[in-house]
Amino acid sequence: MTFLARAAGALLPLAILLPLPALAQDCHVTASEADQPRYARPDDPWIYRGTDIPVDENWLFGELPNGVRYAVRQNDVPPCQMSLRVRIDAGSLHEGDSERGYAHLLEHMVFRESSTFGPGEAIPHFQRLGASFGFDTNATTTPTATTFKLDLPNANRASMDDSVHRFAGMVTAPTLSSANLAADLPIVLAERRESAGPQRRVADQTTAVFFAGQRLAERSPIGTVEALEAATQESVRAFHRRWYRPENAVVVLVGDADPRVLAAMVERNFADWRGEGPLTPAPDFGDPAAPAGADPANPVGELAVIVEPGQPRGLTYAIMRPWVEVVDNLEYNRQNLLGYVAAAVVNRRLENRARAGGSFLFAGVQRDKISRSVDGTFVTFAPLTEDWQAALADVRSVIADAVASPPSQAEIDQAVAGFDVAFVDSVEQSRIQAGSALADDITNAVDIREAVASPETFLEVFRSIAPRFTPEQVQEATRELFQGEVIRAVMMAPEPGEVTVADLRTALSATAVASGDARDDTAAIDFADLPAIGEPAAPTAVQPLGVLGTERLTFANGVRALIMGRDNEPGRITVRVRFGGGMARVGADEGVYAELGEMALVTSGIGPLGQNDLDRLAADLKVGFDFEVGDGVFTFQGLTRQEDLEEQLYLFAAKLAMPSWDPAPFERARASALIAYDSYGRDPNGVLNRDLEWLLHDRDPRYATSDPATLRGATPAQFRSVWERLLSEGPVEVDVFGDIDRQATIDALSRTFGALPERVPMTAIAPPPASFPEGGAAATTTLTHGGDSDQSAAIIAWPLGGGSDGIVQSRKLDLLAQVFSNRLLDGLRERAGAAYTPFASSSWPLDRGDGGYLFALVQIEPALLPAFFDEAEEIAADLAANGPTADELERVVEPARQYLLRAQTGHTFWLNQLQGAAFDTNRLVYLPSIFRDVDEATPAELQALAQRYLAARPGWRLQIVPQGGAPAGATASGR
C-alpha cells in the first residue's frame, strides 16, 4: 500500500492545501493627475436622457466631440480583469442588396490585420496575455449591430491602455486589403456552410414569413454566397467607411480601476477618430402590416408550411405589432412587469395542459421585441401526433380562456412569487456581477434603445406594483399580449402534403373555444406538512480538510458531506449530491432507461407530490433540480440560498428515500425522444449527437441513442424497476458550498441526508471495462446524413485513461489538446480557410479508472476530409516527435493560468475540484499541484504525453458524409 493510499483518512497540513496564488490580488488602478477625462458627463448620462429611471451611479458616462459615446465602471469580479466592448450600430439590416454578409465579413477582417496588428497577430497576442480565443476574445454580428469583445485577465494600467489602443486601431483602421479579403472569405463561407442544414433552412423561411415586407425578412447576418463571393476590397471598404463612424460607436470599459482612469483611456484612444463625409442615416427597417383588405377581426396574414423530412412537427404563430421606440420610464416598466406575470400565468396553464394529457408535447407564449423591427407575441408548440389541428385548438383554447376570464389570485401569486425570488436574487448577486456581464448590459440596452437599471431598482419597481397584481389587471395585460395588427404563422411538417397553407389558414381563422381545464387554483403547499425523511441524525464525525475552511461530515448511515462557507458570494449556495455508480451500474439492456431518466426522473415526483405540487411548493423558493448521468456517478444539483437550503436538501433526499413513479413524465419523455429521433440523421451534427458516444465506447449498447423500436418497447414499470435500484445503491456524498451558515447547514443535513436509511452496496452488476474502437485509416467508420451535399464532419480520436490517480496527467492532457486545437485552427482555418471551428478536446473520467479519450473534430467539405485526417495525423506525429514550441505552450498555458486565477474566487471552482473527496482522497492529495501542473508544464512533458497516447496506436477515424457521398474505398457503417 502506497503512502497516498494510507493517507486516505489523514488530514493534510493547511499550508500544503493552498495550491493557488493568494486569493486577494490587489490590481486596482488608482487615478493620477493625468487621469482627468474631459468629456465625462456624470450630471447628464446619455443613456438616461428623457427617462425617470434612477441613474445607476456606478457607471460614468461620457460623449466625445466626434460622437463616440462611452460608459465605464469600476468592477473587480473577477479580480484583475478588464472587459471591453466596442459596439458599432451597423448589422445585417444596414447592408445593401449587394452587401449581404458584409457586416459579418468585416467582423472577421477587423481581427485579421489593422493599424495595431500585423497579419494574424491579434488572437495570438491576446492568448499570450491570457485571453482565450472565442471565449475572452470574440465578436458578434446581429441584424442591428456588430460588437467586438475582449475580457482581458491579469490587467494592469499598461495592458489595459495598450489593449484599448489596439482594439481602437482594429475597429477604426482595419487593413481591408484584397489579400486579407482572400484569407477571410473562405472562413466566412466555411462558417456559412457549417451552419447550413435543416435548422437554418427553417430559420430562414420562418424569418421570411414573420417579417415579410421588412428588411429583416431577407438579411441574415450570415449573408449570401453570391454577395460574399462578389466582395472586393473597394466594396468592403465602402461599407466600413459608411457605418464604422464615431457617431455609430459605443465603447464600454469595465475593470478594476478608478472610472476616471477608464474614461481617460477611452478618450485618449478614440478621440481622434473621424468619419469621412456626411453621416448616413440608418435605413427604415419597416413595419409588419396586414395584407391589403384584410378583415381587422381576423388579421391572419402570411403563412407557410415548411417541409423538412425527419424534423419534428411544430407550429409557431405570432401576433405582430410595429416596433416603437419607447420612452423607457418607470411606468413603461411597470406595464412590462404586468405583462411578464400575465405570460407566466398562461405558460403555467399550457404546461398543466401538456402534463394532463394534452395533444401537444409542449407549448409556450413569449413577447419579444426583435431587431427593432417588430413587437410580437409568439406562440410555439409541438403536436404529439399528426393531428396538429387538435393541438392548435388545444393551445388556443387555453389562451382564449385567459383572455376571456380573469385568473385566480392563487395563480397570480404563484407567478409573482417566482419573479420576486428572481429579483431578490439579482440584488443579492449584484455585488459579484461579472464585469463582462455588466459591459454586455450596456450594449444590449443601446441595442434596444432603452436605459439600464440597477437590480435594486428592478426589485423596487416590481414590489411597488403589488396592488396591480389583481385578476382584472392581469387579465387586461393578457389581452394586450394577444392584440396586434397581423397574425403570421409557420408550420413545420416532416412529409409533403401533410398540411397545406389553406388548412393552416382555416385552423387559425376558426374561433377559439375557451377552456378552463388547465386552470389550477390549488393552494400552495407548505414544506412543514411533508413527511419527514426519517429520524434526524447528527454527524458522527466532523473533520477539517484544510482547504479554505472545508469540512467533511460523516453520518452513521454512511452518507458523507463536504461543506465550505464563502461569504464573497452573498446569497449563493450550490448543492451537489453524488450517488451510485452512473453508467457503470446500468445494465447492457437498460440504456434506454438511463436516457429517459435524465428527462423524466426528476419530474416523476417525490412522496405524495407530483409535478404540479412541486411547482407550487417551490414557487417562492430559490431551489433547483438538475440531474446528470455520468460515467461513474449520478448527480443532483441545485442552486439555492441559506433560507431555502433545507428545502433544497429535502427535495434531493426525498428523491432517494421516497421517489414517486407518476408514469406521465415517463410517457412525455418517451414521446419527446420519439419525435426527435428522425431529426438526428439530417445533418452531420445530428449524427454526431446520436452516435458519437456510442462509437467512442466501441458500440457499448448502454451509450446508444435509443431508436424508435427500443423506445416503444420501454415501459413505465421497467423504468421504475431500473431507477428504484439505481437510486437506492452505492455511497452518497452531499456537497454544500457557498454563503452558508455552518451550524444551520449541519442541522439541515442531519434532518435530511442524515435521516436516510443505510444504502444498498453496489454488488449486483460487474460493469465491463471501457473499450475503444480499433484505429487506422483502413478501419475508418463512415456514417451518412440526409442533409446538404457540401457538408461533412470528421473525428479522429485516441484512447486515454481515467481515474483520480491520473488527475495531474489529465491537466497536462488538457494543455496538449489545446495546442492541438490551435494547430488545427492555424492550419485548417487561418491558412487554408477549409473549416471554421476545428478543435480538439480531451476527456479523463475521474469517477472510473478508464474510458478517457482525446479527439479532434471538424466540419468540412466532403472532398477535404482526407486533408483533415492528414493534418491531424501530422499534428499528432509532430507533437510526439518534437513537442510544442515554447510559444505554442505559452499560448495555452497563459489562458489556463488566468482561468485558474479568476475561477478560484468562486465557490463552484472549489466544488468542482473537491467533489468526490469525501470518499476519494486523491481529489485532495492532488489539489495542491493544480496551479503548478499548468504553470510549470514543459514542452517535454507534453511531448511525452503525445508519445504515450497519440503515437502509441493509430487514431480511430469517423467521417460523416452525405448520403451517396461516401469517399471511394471507405467502408460504410451504421447502426
Automatic annotation (TrEMBL):
Keyword terms: Hydrolase, Metalloprotease, Protease, Signal, Zinc
Keyword Transferase found: no
Pfam families listed in its UniProt record: Peptidase_M16 (PF00675), Peptidase_M16_C (PF05193)
Domain of life per record: Bacteria
GO MF terms held by the record: metal ion binding; metallopeptidase activity
Residues covered by the Peptidase M16 N-terminal domain: 74-217
Keyword Zinc: yes
Signal peptide: 1-24
Domain Peptidase M16 C-terminal: 232-417, 715-893
Gene Ontology BP term (one): proteolysis
Cited PANTHER family: NARDILYSIN, PROTEIN YHJJ
Entry similarity comment: Belongs to the peptidase M16 family.
Protein name as it appears in the record: Peptidase M16
Organism: Aurantiacibacter luteus
